[in-house]
Design a protein that fits this description.
31% of the residues lie in helices and 20% in strands. The chain is an alpha+beta fold and 566 residues long. It has three domains: 5-223, Distorted Sandwich (Beta-galactosidase, Chain A, domain 5), CATH 2.70.98; 230-296 and 319-353, no CATH class; 483-566, no CATH class. Strands 1, 2, 3, 4, 5, 6, 7, 10, 11, 12, 13, 14, 15 and 16 form a 14-stranded antiparallel β-sheet that branches. The chain has a two-stranded antiparallel sheet with strand order 8-9. A two-stranded antiparallel sheet has the order 17-18. The model is unreliable at 1-5 (pLDDT under 50).
Length: 566
């Protein structure tokens, strides 16, 4: 199949696979090009960012010189990517990974105290016949603000203040580009090792093979620890592995995504930096991992949460940096053209200062789960959780920006009120009832039922005094909020009626203060599956779930959004 010029420069987002080491990550296209890579930290300046500017962004490409077909996938139970290129003359395997393993001294089944050298390793091997393979390397420095000058030194290609490529492939250097063609025959293998700085002379074959073994053993052990044995296990485990990649091991923080500024709509301006820790998203992730038997991640996140929130106590920010940073000032990188011309490109995220009252409830809901699974809270933790409930009692009646980070005027979002109820309810269940908390809990219920239910349709609204509903209300059945079955079913029906486009759901239809449009949010469609299941519609839930699973790309990953038209 021929690719358009846009697709050659900017492959479809669905063409990318993710690898990582629980510190940084990389995105690799079906054509064998690493087009995004941050080493050491998810929020570091990328060493490759062709994803955001095809002309100057930097990349590391390995692919056959002749026409080829591609089959790829992860090694079972791992985040090690294997891509097989088949040409008329032979077959070549490309193995990509970022080395990671348990830290020295870590105990059995300790999968949170990790060690990684912050490398990206690529192993290319001819499996059958022979093949000509082209390697091209162009690093990015300072987010591609300046053009680096490459120098070759003893089998390494170095750049001042930038990454270093160690390889046993001979490359020719011209300015900021190193490239070459290697002839491989069956059984022959070559290696490329990218690091954030020069690591001296290496025995590449031995080092790459050893790192591959350690990394494979780590991921296979982590996967074997998964206690889920039900239907769709392969999809469940692949999603769990992807979530694990988003956890920053040194602190336990969980990034919303490993990238910045991929557009919600091509050419549009809804492009945000997601390389930070949203407390709400993290709570959802920890719920999912806990259900599969992984509790260590929750314990480490508890320390991150406590340490981060000290700086803003008693207020809790909706998000923090992965090191606990509280100021995430949003900046625009005007020198980058953006994915397929979708400007602006951002670093930082201005939403960090927003008031979103629901985040308190999400964190306290997770705290109850943490305790239920055998976790404990010391005196300092307990005081912190109680202070969150006290903050809710003082502020739950205030308007906010809502879960979707609306950049218009604040409103009284119904989901925020429900999560305020959840937060106070969970503190009561953890520490016991107190009259003032129980009274506030009842007041919230009365207000939601009086102001948050449509008088005409009998369903929950997005916000008080506003028409329309919100897909996030599909979470209500799982939260235990005391609303009757008729209202729950009416809410599900209204969401399907108002927000469904094709087989998928929009988040909302109200004006949100931003230019452009967005696609359907896939997570909302998965929430619908849960809501249908919990309200007695299992067959419809199963049918929808299986349709959603079919939207994964060839390595089992999902996009945040999908265009219902295509």
């Amino acid at each position: 199949m021929m690719m358009s010029l846009d697709e050659e420069a900017y492959p479809p987002i669905g063409d990318y696979a993710l690898i990582g080491d629980c510190h940084g990550s990389a995105l690799i296209s079906r054509q064998g090009s690493v087009d995004w890579c941050c080493l050491g930290r998810f929020d570091a300046d990328p060493v490759f960012c062709r994803l955001l500017d095809a002309g100057k962004g930097g990349f590391l490409s390995v692919r056959p010189e002749d026409a080829y077909q591609v089959v790829r996938g992860y090694l079972d139970g791992t985040n090690i990517l294997c891509t097989t290129f088949s040409t008329q003359s032979g077959k070549v395997a490309l193995t990509d990974f970022m080395p990671v393993g348990r830290a020295p001294g870590a105990g059995l089944h300790d999968y949170v105290n990790l060690h990684a050298p912050f490398w990206l390793v690529r192993i290319v091997e001819c499996l059958e016949g022979s093949a000509r393979v082209r390697v091209r390397y162009r690093p990015a420095v300072d987010f591609a603000r300046r053009r680096p000058h490459l120098t070759q030194m003893r089998g390494a290609y170095v750049v001042e203040d930038g990454p270093c490529l160690h390889t046993d492939v001979t490359l020719s250097v011209s300015g900021d580009l190193a490239e070459g063609i290697l002839e491989l025959h069956a059984g022959e293998r070559r290696h490329l090792l990218l690091s954030s700085h020069s690591v001296g002379e290496l025995e590449l074959a031995e080092r790459a093979g050893r790192m591959l073994g350690i990394t494979r053993a780590f991921w296979e052990e982590w996967s074997a620890y998964c206690r889920y044995r039900g239907p769709y296990r392969e999809a469940v485990l692949r999603s769990a592995l992807a979530l694990k990649l988003l956890i920053y091991a040194p602190t336990g923080a969980i990034v919303a995504a490993p990238t910045t500024s991929l557009p919600e709509q091509l050419g549009g301006g809804r492009n945000w930096d997601y390389r930070y820790c949203w407390l709400r998203d993290s709570s959802f992730t920890l719920y999912a991992l806990a259900a599969l038997g992984y509790s260590g991640e929750a314990r480490k996140f508890a320390r991150f949460l406590h340490n981060s929130c000290k700086a803003t106590h008693p207020r809790v920010q909706i998000m923090y940096g992965i090191g606990g940073e509280k100021e995430l000032t949003e900046k625009t990188l005007d020198h980058l053209e953006g994915y397929r011309g979708s400007r602006p490109v951002h670093t930082g995220n201005g939403a960090y200062s927003q008031q979103q009252i629901d985040v308190y409830g999400e964190v306290l809901d997770w705290a109850l789960l943490h305790r239920t699974l055998g976790g404990s809270f010391d005196a300092e933790d307990a005081e912190f959780l109680r202070s969150m409930a006290e903050y809710l009692t003082a502020h739950w009646q205030e308007p906010d920006q809502g879960i979707w980070e609306m950049r218009g005027p604040p409103l009284h979002h119904v989901y925020g009120k429900i999560m305020s109820w959840v937060g106070i309810d969970r503190v009561i269940r953890i520490f016991g009832s107190r009259k003032e908390l129980a009274d506030v809990r009842e007041k919230i219920v009365r207000m939601v039922l009086e102001k948050g239910v449509s008088p005409e349709g009998g369903h929950l609204l997005q916000a008080f005094g506003q028409p329309g509903t919100d897909a996030v209300l599909l979470l209500t059945p799982a939260l235990g909020f005391p609303v009757d079955e008729h209202t729950l079913k009416a809410t599900i029906d209204a969401i399907q009626r108002e927000l469904q486009t094709g087989d998928y759901l929009l988040r909302y239809r109200r004006e949100d203060g931003l230019e452009g449009e967005e696609g359907a949010f896939l997570i909302c469609s998965f929430w619908l599956v849960d809501a249908l299941l919990m309200t007695g519609r299992p067959e419809e839930a199963r049918e929808r779930y299986e349709r959603l699973l079919s939207l994964a790309n060839d390595v089992g990953l999902f996009a945040e959004e999908i265009d219902p038209k295509t």
